Structure formats: structure tokens, C-alpha cells
Amino acid sequence: MIFVVSGIALAIGLTTLNAAIGQVASGTAVMAAAAIGVLVNGATTLLFLRGREHDLNVRGAFVHMAADTAVSVGVIAAGAVIYFTGWAWVDPAVSLAIAGIIFASTWNLLRRSTAMALDAVPSHIDLDAVERYLQSLPGVTAVHDLHVWPLSTSQTALTAHLVRPSSTDDDALLAEAAETLRDRFSIDHTTIQMERGGPVDLDENDGETAS
Q1: Does the model's pTM come out above 0.85?
Q2: What mean pLDDT do residues 59-79 have?
Q3: Which of 57, 103, 133, 208 fits a 20 to 30 Å CA distance from 114?
Q4: The domain made up of 127-195 is a member of CATH 3.30.70.1350
């Protein structure tokens, strides 16, 4: 949606740029209207500042409001130039520059949204580190079928098979693993299957898995 709005702003800016050449706009009126926008949008942006790194929805709202604030700041700058020079073309030119900034700032948001839609490993999780941690658990000799994917914009899930041949005290280990995965890696939902031998070959075992 932000890309669509930016595209509209770009089109309007180009159209207005052609119409503005040779005309004089009221710089004072432009700056006064934009100043109100800076106050309102800036205050709203601060509300989303803290949670923007952990929730994609919050980040989207933050980028949107930050873009609105940037637009207002750009309008004030354009108004000042118009006021002192009478260059009406500055206003649409600034609009074009702001549209470019918005496109650039939303690229990461689009990339993360696409990764989430494809159930890719969240960018803040080091899958190799997760596998090393599971491998280091007492009695674990192998880790396989490890999958990590986003359940939502703020929650992550993990499934894995751990080979632990010599121990039957799995409940305490599973509780410890779930707690560490949550605290260290921000993985909220964990499903781990314990196995006593090597990875199960489904073709050789008629579709049965070890438990």
C-alpha cells in the first residue's frame, strides 16, 4: 500500500512540477499547514518506535507515520524556499524526492513481509546457532528435520527431531530447551520429537515415526 501511495505521489509530483513552473505559491500557508502535520504525525510515530523491531505490523505503521512526518518536514522546507525565492517548482520537486525516500525505506518491510508469506526463517534468528544449541543439549547426538518459521508478525515456531539414545528423562530437557529457545532466540512455540536411534526412514518403516 505504501508503494502505491508513493507511486501516486510521484505521479502527482511530476504533474504539479510541470504546472508549477512560472507560478508563485504561498510559502507561509504551505509551512503553516505542514507544521501541524509534523506535530501530529511525529507524535504518532513515537508511539510505534519501541515495538517496530519485533512486530511487522507495528513496523509497517511506524514506516507509514514516519513517511508522513518526512513529507510534512519536506513541505516546510519547500515552503521556506518558496517564501524567500518564489520558486513554485520546489514544492513538487520535494514531493518527488520524498516519494523516492519512501520507496527506499519500505523495501525492507516488503522483503520481510514476503519472507513471512513464504514461511522463511525470520531474519532475526540464526538457524545455525539454534541447531548448535540443540546439538549441545545433554545426551543429544544428532539434530535433524529442524524447521523455524513465523506464525505471525510477532511469534515464531520451531519443530525438530533430537536423537538421544541413552536417556529416558526427556521432560526436564524439553522444558529447558523450550525456555532457552524462547529467551535466547525469541522462539515462542516449540515442538521437539525425541528419538532413541538415528533418523527414521519413512519408506522403510511404512510411514511410522519414532516417538
Answers
A1: no
A2: 78
A3: 133
A4: yes
